Amino acid sequence: MDRRAWLAAGFSFLQPGLGHLYLRAYRRAVTWFLVWAAVTAALVDLPTPEPTLSGLVAAATQLFAALGGLDLIPSLVISAVTAFAMVDAFRLAEARMRTDDDTPRCPSCGKELDGDLDFCPWCTADLSGE
């Protein structure tokens, strides 16, 4: 298993879209964040915040308080969106590590390796133990 795939899934657990940002899949990141934001906005009744920093902080505080007091069904729906984002980030990272040819890849960064070197020329990861 690839460490990057688990990291991407973990970031998506914290906030849907973060794992995709980590994988540099920017359109997917924005899409997953907007899906999460739309579902959350539809299920959580919050007033429109003032367009100031203190208004945004107050809105974030109200959002966290409202998310903590949600009923079962809205919580499951928001959790399902998060779970799908995690699975998508994990599968995207795994797919990027897989190749159709037998080119050796670095376990750290996923880029092609030179067979003559015992380290990755891209991220300098030590490969002497493999």
Describe this entry's structure for a reader.
By secondary structure, the protein is mostly helical. The protein has one domain (3-97). It is 59% helix and 0% strand. It is elongated.
Q: What is the average of the pLDDT values?
A: 87
Taken from the alpha-carbon principal axes, the silhouette is: elongated
Give me the secondary-structure category: mainly alpha
Q: Can you count the beta strands?
A: 0
Instruction: Please indicate the count of domains.
Output: 1
Largest sheet entry: none
Q: In percent, how much strand structure appears in the residues? A: under 5%
H/E topology pattern: HHHHH
Number of helices: 5
For the structure shown, list the relevant keywords.
5 helices; mainly alpha; 0% strand; 130 residues
Question: What is the fold's blueprint, element by element?
Answer:
Layout: H1 3-14, H2 18-22, H3 26-43, H4 53-68, H5 72-97
Helix pairs in contact: 1-5, 3-5
Summary?
Pfam families: DUF7575. With 130 residues, this protein is mainly alpha-helical.
